Amino acid sequence: MGEEYGEVIVREFDPNRDTERVEAVERMCEVGPSGKLSLFTDLLGDPICRVRHSPSFLMLVAEIGEEIVGMTRGCIKIVTCGKKLSRSINATPKPLPVYTKLAYLLGLRVSPSHRRMGIGMKLVKKMEEWFRDNGAEYSYIATENDNLASVNLFTDKCGYSKFRTPSILVNPVFAHRLSLPRDVIILRLSPSDAETLYRRRFATTEFFPRDIDSVLRNELTLGTFLAVPRGSRYTQHTWPGSIPFLADPPGSWAVVSVWNCKEVFTLEVRGASRVRRTLAKTTRMVDRALPFLGLPSVPNFFRPFGFHFMYGLGGEGGEVVKMVRALCGHAHNLAKERGCGVVVTEVSRREPLRLGVPHWKRLSCAEDLWCIKRLGEDYSDGSVGDWTKSPPGLSIFVDPREL
Q1: 363: closest CA among 394, 348, 341?
Q2: How confident is the model over 165-195, as pLDDT tens digits?
Q3: Which end of the chain has a smaller Cβ tally under 10 Å, C or N?
Q4: Domain range holding 66?
Q5: Under a CB-based contact definition with an 8 Å cutoff, are residues 270 and 27 in contact?
Q6: Which InterPro entries does this chain map to (predicted)?
């Protein structure tokens, strides 16, 4: 069958001559089933928008003659794959992160008319060559748990194994602002204070990026926000910095950062019936007319909409869930001000703080699937051993640069 179409050439994406043809393939791959709701993505004319903020990235296209028939993207970074205990001067064991060079493969697409020709496999193998040439020790992918074609390609043919099943939690942005608890204060941290807090408290979390400073200082990070009880000695005007704060924290606190995905790509729901559209519009009209009722309304998902992503969610204390809920309310209001349709986060299925994250089940995904592959056998991962065989921890750190 491959001979019938000619030789498949896999090469690096050239934005000067490939952009329009790549967008055409993206549109063909996103044709939803007739009569069913489907989610479409608009990359706003930038095919590498989902990886360009990573420290190292590549996009490949598969070409037959003058026709582009497939593509994929990949990026590489250094992340925490576990932790080890080290004895400090006072003989108290201190957890230290174990880092590894990790590659992420995403956005694999093959034109519907050229499937079952091994093109997807060629793209994956070529990308993995680039990963190895650049010293990556592991490669992972994320896919829907029920996308059997994708799962089978990676697990049966490409040597990946199922690794983690985080949850994607999605909450709509209503037409009214949310009221925040009066006994909670939300502080905005500087990038340097945010970096210090994350490195000192969360650096041993799986997938924590060693270049967290680059993430926090990226123009798409709208801020890092800290929730503390009102009445504690910490306010925006008396903030002493993260080191003194962590040395003497309040009884409960929580932190989150917000990434502006709206500037990268937009989403759109298609295939909705006229009845669904009318019902959704009615909820918005009522919400705007009677905002004091605080009725939940359905945003206009039937035209392109943007979203904000909450990352770096963490905290401590007996009322930490309440603090998280307050931060989510703050993030909702920030998204409303900026015209977004939803607020999204992704957390481990075992994450205790997920109890404080409001979300609609119909919009969320209870089980996203991450598959992982060790790219070689000669790596030294310290006390972690082979990361692909390690049990899941309570938390993961989802890098917003790879959405």
Answers
A1: 341
A2: 999 999 999 999 999 999 999 999 999 999 9
A3: N
A4: 2-166+369-402
A5: no
A6: Acyl_CoA_acyltransferase (IPR016181), GNAT_dom (IPR000182), Plant_NAT (IPR052810)
